[in-house]
Amino acid sequence: MKPTLSISLRVCAACSVAAMLTIGLPHIASAGPTVVDPAFVAANADDPTAYKLCCDDQFTIAVFNHPEFTSSATLLSDGTFDYYNTRIRAAGLTLAQLTTKLTKLLVASGQLTSPTVTVTVTQVAATVSVVGDVKLPGRFPCKTNMHVLDALADGEGLAQTAQFSKITLMKAGAAKGTSIDAIKLFGGDSDQNLPVGPQDIVMVEARDPNDIDVNLSGEVAHPGQYTVSDEGAPVFSVLSDAGGPTAAAALSRVQIIHDKQVRQVDLRSQINAPTADITDARVYPGDLVVVPTNDRKVLVLGEVKAPSVYMIPDGDTLTLSEAITIAGGFTPDAVRPKVELIRSTDGGDPTITTIDMTTYLTKGNADIVLKPKDLVFVPSKRQGMSSSQSFGAISALGGLVTVLRFLSL
Prior knowledge:
This protein has 409 residues and is α+β, with helices and mostly antiparallel strands. It folds into four domains: 4-123, wza like fold, CATH 3.30.1950.10; 127-206, Outer membrane lipoprotein wza fold like (Roll), CATH 3.10.560; 214-291, Outer membrane lipoprotein wza fold like; 297-407, Outer membrane lipoprotein wza fold like (Roll), CATH 3.10.560.10. It is 18% helix and 30% strand. It is built from ten helices and 25 strands. The chain has a five-stranded mixed β-sheet with strand order 10-9-13-11-12. A five-stranded mixed β-sheet has the order 15-14-20-17-18. The longest helix has 14 residues, at 95-108.
């Protein structure tokens, strides 16, 4: 059994909930955690997208290696809770801010010198309202890191007559709402997927079905509305009018939404081998065509010339040797016999496979086909690095932000 390294990551900029990432790594000298620098927490404490604690929220407090300071709490109606004979005001604080507050309290009390505090919300008492032209209007629990798409999903999605361009988010206490372009929202534009907090209202207004063009969104050069006749038009024609797909388009998973029915078509395979089923596919006024982003990516780190995140070609595969090649190939300091493939597993620790790239293919082995979110790590002769130091290598490429963005793909 290989030793395990627990990395405690406070994801302030993304969701402000403490995320625990456990990776099985060999050759760990110490069982202690690698923790985000407190400056990282402080720098993101005022992130406007972070969830803020509300009355009746329930959460747990844990201090690494000090179970005697572990506690569960519920935020009272006055916005406070008790923690070891101290009344603490926490209403309106992000988890990062409360983490900093508790850390300072433990240090000031003289009980600990440099505690590693983790705060995790276990139950959110606040609600969000979803009203208007959705399938199930109502009030729903406000979850941590909740966004507009999450709220609409709780309302079982847009009704057929929903006006795609007229979604409004009313923040609690605000006099004016924020308009959201639903075409861009469902096309994957994260700027439209605004954070939703307690007591917010997501409103969907009805559309006029007689005055809607074909709406094209996602990975196309010019998303927007395009006029077609009542007889419809070929989907390829509308894509052409929009300037064609972008390089990041997942043409193998294009969605055509017509009369409440979602049809997924593989346009990628039809480019070189068209069939009547696809080339004759037509879109009609009121239809929504979504060209999704190819989010199938891998991370190549260590002694390659261009370490970075790389895309698995849409509708195709990417092998281990191909990934190393597109990353510029090995550097002179690469330890080729000890290339490591780190692969996540459902609900368990990631697996680490060591491959001798000097002989693997010459021995008749089939090249390894990579999966989305695989991490390829090439150790260094100079530093003797293995996956046990891969966290440091990641930090050199942009730190925790790089890792968290990759993990959230």
